[in-house]
Task: structure prediction
Amino acid sequence: MRISKALDERKEEFITVAEKMFLEYGISDTSVSRIVKEMGVAQGLFYYYFKSKDEVIEAVIDKNITGFEQQLKELAAQETVDFSRQFEEFIGIYYIAYEELRRKFQGKNSKHILELFNHRFRKKVGSVTSEILLQIIQRGIHQGKVRLKHPKRTIQIVVGGVGDLVLDYGFHDRMVLEEILRHTLGIVEPQCRESLD
Result:
């Protein structure tokens, strides 16, 4: 018989076990009954914490992006920071988050990882990332350090593309990523700006 645990601790256990099983068996082959059997608890306890399997999938995704999302929001809130420095910090946070995910799932069944993270994860990360990067790029435009006609759409394309590069193709060269982002987003290098003025 299991000793009762604190509510938050038990919910976190459900999320951890669900993630492990999604990666091992895939989302479609992991049922709620399989999760509770693995944990040795009654199925009703699952529904105390989650309304559905979809809700636990969202919780697994949130678990993997919470720190990343918080770091980006803190960065965007620093309105007095120079654009170049803020952009560098953005690249660092963005790159490290994807690298951590890549390392975490390295050697796991790639089919199941893609099933878990493909659509829902990318949509959530893409939305947060695009919103924050747009704020940063708009500051750069205002400061004359970025020349971009359609910032919102360009950012959406870039963010989606980077996700594809890292998660689908195993791309992990930070310098190349930064160069691609600078070029695509119309970031004017200091020496280039002088010759344009």
Q: What stands out?
A: The radius of gyration is 20 Å. Residues 23 and 194 are 51 Å apart (CA to CA). The chain has ten helices and no strands. The first helix runs from residue 7 to 25.
